[in-house]
Amino acid sequence: MTVQPIRLFGDPVLRTPAAEVVDFDKELRTLVKDLWDTMEGQGGAGLAAPQIGVGLRVFTYHTDGFAGHLVNPTWTVVGDETQDGDEGCLSIPGMYWPCVRHKNVVAAGWNEHGEPITVEGTDMLARCIQHETDHLDGVLFLDRLDARTRKQAMKEIRAAEWFDGTVPVIKQSPHPLFGGA
Prior knowledge:
Layout: H1 26-42, E1 46-48, E2 58-63, E3 66-77, E4 82-89, E5 92-102, E6 104-110, E7 116-122, H2 124-136, H3 147-159
Antiparallel strand pairs: 1-2, 2-3, 3-6, 4-5, 6-7
């Protein structure tokens, strides 16, 4: 098992858009395995490559009975229903805040061998796909919180034992909540 250290809020890699994967090789398969082992070892529902310091568009997921990975993912919204629920992140350990996401999405990408795959997500899987794809764009779920909740979240983060005092950056996701990616 190869569990990698998780980059925490404030690390610049979490705010840097990841590069497209162009080589579907042994290194990519090792990255997918490391992501999987780290996600499972930390009890996460998903994990994006930037969270372990790798600036490539890859993430793993394991939630609601669905498990796998996506390379160079994109997603589209199905319907106009949203969900509002607590969301957390392995890069912001132990903290959760209510975050609005699309209820149903369809993600497309490739597996570690370069074969096309499609994943239909509802509820938690849809939330996970959106959350992890945001990571690949340098966006954190904090950026999606309403202003009052984000202010409270930042107060709690600044007080957290793990926070190193790095000045936070808030970004706007290129994936609007109301509309497709």
